[in-house]
């Protein structure tokens, strides 16, 4: 019998949300109704005490999760120092001070005087402690080929790669770029670079040559690690060709190491290019990690460009690796028994997240090459099952796309090892969240929402495996981070939409933008002096649950009324005719701004009728004053390659303005027939109406 059919009380209401009565079809909960959302998942008795966070709290005399959160918020420096001990940072020299703010809150220094190395923290110490035979990496390729590496084997690969890089002249402070798919060599490269004190710069494997070159030039990279080619949907992607075009006439870039992934014949430039495996086999291994200051850079992560020109975020050895390992341990329950699979690319922050979270806690990093719906729509669930994944990370975009294939695909996989579903990247809609909770989590596994960003080096808001969960919500601020919601004057607000800010510093925060400190200060510190302004819209409900509603720079103000795009988009995608939606504000001589919506419809839907009906639905939900001036059916939305909707691009293209940086845009052809100001709001899509199931974000 289906256990969900026996649910009673709040749980029954939770499951009924999946199948609303006929008259409610297409209706979506709005901000005003968040307070009425039921608890969707409740932890079993003793969950906190049995979790890594609970054991940590007990050691420090803290009785429960609330006591832990309060202590961490009241004294973040205590939490970071105690947390570093909890994850077992192997200091080569212990720090003198937890944090130094002498340069201001904008430029904190953490663990002053301490020496360590990320590679030693992530790999070497486990071998020293006798866990060399434990599973460190589990990999499945696009072609179903697999590899498993123990910690001893991973250390051997890291040591060899570090020796190869050092033999090619790479040293402390040099930037080494990675243009690699999700293969084990990517993990070895990142940690090898860190091991010799250099800086790893992972790049998205789907970038074109222009985007790669721009980042190589901006960072002053001296070396690049790429591969000959890799498979995607069974077809080769010629990555070396992209690399060759990107590095042409770049004298500062002296080395290109090529991983042999498919065995494809590729041109090799004498003196510059060399095969990865040959260099690793002949170089002298670097067995001991270089002791570096806690504040030494180890990662340079470029943002996807969803907020304009890409920014190079600088992360340190005792920053992002520690922050992520700690929050994964205390929120997701990651420990030495865990296996983490996150659907991502090495070029996005979540690629580094998996390495830091899994290996930093002695668990297993599961790397997935390919896409989640090929060769069948259950590929992601099947890989999770085969790899014995305990923490599975997805984005709402991926879940929405896989929903289109039906629930029978996840239903055939029990996922017995799964303990938590992690989610990041964008705000949820309630329906996909519920679908994922029921058909992937089987009603027993919590969805742990986390939100931060490339600049954050971890999360600002999160849920946990030991606290009740509401659909699409966060339990609250991440431990040790003083997050708040404020109005336009910077005053705290509850019960209304406000700006997400942080009133403290944390180890994972970027130490600035590479070569552009003024832009860093403008982006985060000058809106509310002394307070980190994250440019997200947030809401805290009556029960203390937090929600994100999209970027505040996407906020729509119609006749003085603030409207988050996610509110409108949530209502639109609840309609059975709609696959995806984007909402923007455009100049209006009377209202200041007018609401304009773009919708991707299922094949066969009458576009004109749908546009008229959706406009009516928004008007009825939000009032006449907030009715859209137009609803435009479109074949696809402009998105980054990891699935984020680029509303600024949609808006600029609609207004005929320059769209800015498009290097992260998945498909530039989307903009060719994009509606323009004054166009019909109820016409048919102008080209290429495509099946939503073909619209999955690129993840490899």
TrEMBL record:
- Name the InterPro entries for this protein: ACAS_N (IPR032387), AMP-bd_C (IPR025110), AMP-bd_C_sf (IPR045851), AMP-binding_CS (IPR020845), AMP-dep_synth/lig_dom (IPR000873), ANL_N_sf (IPR042099)
Q: Where is this region: Disordered?
A: 673-700
Which GO MF term does the entry hold, naming one? acetate-CoA ligase activity
UniProt keyword terms in alphabetical order:
Acetylation, ATP-binding, Ligase, Nucleotide-binding
Instruction: Pinpoint the Acetyl-coenzyme A synthetase N-terminal domain residues.
Output: 67-119
Every copy of the AMP-binding enzyme C-terminal domain together lies at 567-644
- Which positions fall inside the AMP-dependent synthetase/ligase domain? 129-514
Q: What top-level branch of life does the organism fall under?
A: Bacteria
Enzyme Commission code(s) on record = 6.2.1.1
Q: What's the short name of a Pfam family annotated to this entry?
A: AMP-binding_C
User: A biological process (GO) annotation for this entry?
Assistant: acetyl-CoA biosynthetic process
Q: Which family does it belong to?
A: Belongs to the ATP-dependent AMP-binding enzyme family.
Official protein name in the record = acetate--CoA ligase
Q: Which organism is it from?
A: Geodermatophilus ruber
């Amino acid at each position: 019998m289906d256990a969900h059919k026996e649910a009673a009380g709040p749980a029954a209401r939770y499951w009924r949300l999946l199948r609303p009565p006929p008259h409610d079809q297409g209706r979506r909960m709005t901000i005003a109704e968040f307070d009425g959302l039921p608890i969707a998942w409740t932890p079993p008795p003793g969950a906190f005490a049995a979790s890594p966070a609970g054991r940590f709290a007990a050691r420090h005399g803290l009785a429960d999760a609330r006591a832990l959160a309060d202590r961490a918020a009241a004294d973040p420096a205590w939490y970071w120092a105690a947390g570093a001990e909890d994850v077992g940072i192997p200091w080569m020299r212990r720090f003198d001070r937890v944090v130094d703010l002498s340069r201001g809150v904008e430029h904190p220094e953490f663990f002053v005087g301490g020496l360590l190395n990320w590679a030693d923290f992530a790999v070497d110490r486990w071998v020293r402690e006798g866990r060399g035979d434990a599973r460190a990496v589990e990999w499945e390729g696009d072609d179903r080929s697999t590899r498993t590496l123990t910690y001893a084997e991973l250390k051997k690969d890291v040591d060899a790669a570090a020796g190869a890089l050092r033999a090619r002249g790479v040293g402390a402070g040099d930037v080494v770029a990675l243009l690699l798919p999700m293969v084990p060599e990517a993990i070895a490269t990142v940690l090898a670079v860190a091991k010799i004190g250099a800086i790893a710069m992972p790049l998205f494997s789907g970038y074109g040559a222009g985007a790669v070159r721009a980042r190589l030039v901006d960072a002053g990279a001296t070396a690049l690690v790429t591969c000959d080619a890799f498979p995607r949907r069974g077809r080769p992607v010629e990555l070396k060709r992209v690399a060759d075009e990107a590095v042409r006439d770049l004298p500062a870039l002296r080395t290109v190491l090529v991983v042999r992934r498919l065995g494809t014949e590729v041109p090799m430039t004498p003196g510059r290019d060399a095969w990865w495996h040959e260099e690793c086999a002949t170089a002298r291994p670097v067995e001991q990690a270089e002791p570096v200051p806690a504040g030494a850079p180890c990662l340079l992560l470029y943002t996807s460009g969803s907020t304009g020109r890409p920014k190079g975020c600088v992360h340190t050895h005792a920053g992002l690796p520690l922050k992520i390992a700690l929050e994964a341990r205390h929120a997701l329950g990651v420990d030495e028994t865990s296996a983490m699979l996150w659907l991502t690319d090495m070029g996005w922050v979540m690629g580094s997240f998996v390495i830091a979270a899994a290996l930093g806690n002695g668990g297993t990093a599961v790397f997935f090459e390919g896409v989640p719906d090929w060769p069948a729509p259950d590929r992601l669930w099947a890989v999770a099952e085969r790899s014995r994944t305990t923490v599975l990370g997805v984005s709402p975009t991926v879940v929405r796309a896989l929903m289109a294939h039906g629930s029978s695909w996840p239903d055939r996989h029990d996922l017995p090892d799964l303990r938590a579903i992690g989610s990041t990247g964008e705000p949820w809609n309630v329906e996909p969240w519920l679908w994922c909770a029921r058909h992937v989590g089987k009603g027993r596994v919590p969805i742990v929402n986390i939100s931060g960003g490339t600049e954050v080096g971890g999360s600002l808001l999160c849920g946990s495996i030991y606290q009740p969960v509401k659909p699409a919500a966060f339990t609250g601020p991440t431990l040790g981070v003083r997050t708040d919601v404020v109005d336009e004057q910077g005053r705290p607000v509850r019960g209304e939409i406000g700006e997400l800010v942080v009133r403290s510093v944390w180890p994972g925060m970027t130490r600035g933008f590479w070569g552009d400190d003024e832009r860093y200060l403008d982006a985060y510190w000058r809106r509310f002096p002394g307070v980190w302004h994250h440019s997200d819209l947030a809401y805290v409900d009556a029960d203390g649950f937090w929600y994100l509603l999209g970027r505040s720079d996407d906020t729509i103000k119609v006749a003085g009324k603030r409207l988050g795009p996610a509110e409108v988009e949530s209502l639109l995608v609840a309609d059975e005719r709609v696959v995806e939606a984007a909402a923007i504000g455009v100049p209006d001589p009377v209202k200041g701004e007018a609401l304009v919506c773009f919708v991707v419809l299922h094949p066969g839907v009458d576009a004109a009728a749908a546009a008229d009906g959706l406009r009516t639905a928004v008007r009825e939900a939000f009032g006449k004053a907030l009715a859209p001036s137009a609803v435009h059916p479109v074949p696809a939305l402009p998105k980054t390659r990891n699935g984020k909707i680029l509303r600024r691009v949609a808006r600029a293209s609609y207004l005929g303005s320059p769209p800015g940086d498009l290097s992260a845009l998945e498909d530039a052809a989307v903009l060719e027939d994009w509606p323009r100001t004054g166009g019909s709001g109820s016409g048919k899509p102008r080209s290429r109406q495509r099946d939503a199931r073909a619209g999955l974000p690129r993840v490899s």
